[in-house]
Amino acid sequence: MEYFLTEEQKTVRDLARKIAEERILPLRAELDEREEFPWDIIRQLASSDLFRIFIPEEYEGLGGGCLELCLAVEELSRACSGVAITYAASALGALSILEYGTEEQKRRRLPDIASGKSLAAFALTEATAGSDAGAIKTTATEKEGGYVLNGTKQFITNGGEAEIYTVIALTDKERGARGASAFLVEKDTPGFSFGEKEKKMGIRASSTRELIFRNCFILKENLLGKEGMGFIIALRVLDRSRPGVAAQAVGIAQGALEAATDYARQRIQFEHPIISIQAVQHMLADMAIEVEAARALVYSVARTIDSGAKSITEEAAMAKVFASDVAMRVTTNAVQVFGGAGYIRDYPIEKMMRDAKITQIYEGTNQVLRNVIASELRKRRSRQE
Predict the structure, then answer these.
(1) Which parts of the chain have pLDDT scores under 70?
(2) I want to staple 160 with a disulfide (CB 3.0 to 4.6 A). Which of 8, 57, 209, 334 is the partner?
(3) Annotated active-site positions, please?
């Protein structure tokens, strides 16, 4: 479909596709097998200025928006979503600074993120606070000149590799979620350490670790926004980042569709390529319909965000839920098209199926986000009455 991209947006898309095909595809099986963090590819993305696209020009970025980021993430995910989420997670970590940082915080940290010198990360999830994010227990106790952090964060993308972390912690335990605040924590801060790298079903090239805070002192200037704003910051940042997860899902699904179509053209059974079999044709057709529908929704939501819309909770949740469900269905059907070959690692399709699953889970499980969508529907109807 024609999405009427600007020349700059086409350049972003084409550059990401070129890197994906030339640098990521030859290494994706090895990165997945070794569960190796893709530093060489991250440096390539940095030297190509892809980290600059989501940073404003005044902080040494290129001034792109949500759509430009989604275009890059989609193309990278066609090749390897483990690499893509490493890139996207840095954008997530930067987003909290962009939205709520002081001018000094922005000027100090955003140029290094834009250049790719520093990766960023966002830390909300804990062992007892997954879907129930308001149940966090990590504390930030005020002390002269700053705060002392104690607690742990779990399943943090870019954990151990990022240089700067946005951490949500309680400054007032009595107020529950309303007593949460957001802080910037540098990797080398005393009292801040990391757990072992998690061994995952998919996105194995990315680094997922526990963050551990033991009497970790940070300066007061590291507070993002105001005390008590942490949970609001987290929710609003996730609203704006969910289209990126949706774009990841679209990229995975597109890659699976292309692989399945190519295989169906080459695989001979009953003396004909299996793409001539109507049952296979219908599977491929349904896959293509769903991928294009997901892409259209993701791009539309991204443009809505870039227009400056204030309330995008419902739309962002819809994009993430629909696209990730599509990715799971498409990759599952792609494995079926491959048959037995799709179940072995000689072909990339089993990796795509493993990678697709996480898009239904992180940044809000699809079950929780359906509750969010329903809640927004109810609110809108109430306002109309």
Answers:
(1) none
(2) 209
(3) 363
